[in-house]
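Worked Example 4.2. Consider the chain below.
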Amino acid sequence: MASRGCVLAVFAIFFISRILCSHGAPVAPMTPYLMLCQPHMRCGDKFYDPLQHCCYDDAVVPLARTQRCGNCTFRVCFEQCCPWTFMVKLINQNCDSAPTSDDRLCRSVS
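Applying the procedure from the previous section yields the following structure tokens:
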């Protein structure tokens, strides 16, 4: 009878942890504060918190990371440089698509 109680307790713990972690997976905390569940993404073989980092060129980088595109600076997590036109477009836009009001035209730096 005691083993049935243990089985139910283990099942209850498993079920509760699945409910608590339904929006993310357990990951190692980066701070002294224990976070049981948080959203995560994968970049190659590394996991990262998308609220603090992004995956750029197969590397985990901070959301504030910038890079040059001609004479412009773009945020690599949110924008992309179209090198043959030196145009900065939003990350989900195709470099071959027509320019939009969100695009920035940059000049080549000699």
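The helical segments are 2-20. Residues 19-27 have pLDDT under 50 and may be disordered. Compare this with Example 4.1 before moving on.
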